[in-house]
Amino acid sequence: MKVSRVILLKEPRNDEDEDPYMLLFANAGYETRFVAPLCATAVEQTRLQELIAKGPATRFSGVIFTSKRAVSAWNDAASTLPCPPTSRWSEVPFFVVGPSTGEMLASVHCNGRPTRIIGSQRSGTGALLADLIIREHATELKGTERPLLFLTGDKTRDTLPIKLAAADLALEQMQVYQTTDSPRFQDELAAALRELGKDEQTWLAFFSPSGVRAVRATLECSPRTAVDQASLRVAAIGPTTEEALRKTDLFEVHAIADQPEPESLLEAMQRYES
């Protein structure tokens, strides 16, 4: 009997055993392992604290999040402020990519917590979120003459800003986290790949173009991580990551998640397996 394993190329939540990917895949019968190619660090925390304390007022018409790392940075900054909230962020819409990002945002500290979270169930990428904003909220946002606040990382793609600019929607970007290569990634990936066996079916799940680049560099530069790629199945968490994999010509992609969520990734993998 073949054993199904999945190597998740992402950082787990603080408690790995409570990570939603771990819980879902374990329940579905997969042996699951996390190997994080990147580390994220919050930046501009003092500036972000001051921005949250002042509130949107006459400055912003809404806030955009396309990653949970940005939500985490927002929550860390908001948590330094006292409750009850005085900054009135509940008065503007918050636009997000994916249900889990929306759920995380709904539970942030009181001073940064929104009441209107839009897009979580209907947008799996920044491009789709931009389309939703333009299609359903452009008139409302243009009427305020205030820009949207877009919280980004150092590797955030420019697709969303380009689309909003083309629709004449003002945007102010603020980098709130940066990512660096994990110093342990090469060793951890090598260990995970060495464990592959003939009686195992192993999935390698990619979560970002940065992860694709990190794996490619590791496989090309370190012979000890060499692996029979025919023994692997490769999954991508959305079209952006799938495109990065296709451009590297390193792996064939067998499954693409429709949404950046555990359930969507599992469904895509199981569709291929069936």
From TrEMBL:
GO biological-process terms attached to the record: protoporphyrinogen IX biosynthetic process; uroporphyrinogen III biosynthetic process
CDD domains: HemD (cd06578)
GO cellular component entries: cytosol
Sample GO molecular function, one term: uroporphyrinogen-III synthase activity
SUPFAM superfamilies named among the record's database cross-references: HemD-like
Domain of life: Eukaryota
Residue span, Tetrapyrrole biosynthesis uroporphyrinogen III synthase domain: 34-267
Pfam families in UniProt: HEM4
Protein's name according to its UniProt entry: Tetrapyrrole biosynthesis uroporphyrinogen III synthase domain-containing protein
Species in which this protein is naturally found: Mixia osmundae (strain CBS 9802 / IAM 14324 / JCM 22182 / KY 12970)
Upper taxonomic lineage: Eukaryota, Fungi, Dikarya, Basidiomycota, Pucciniomycotina
Gene that this polypeptide is encoded by: Mo00461
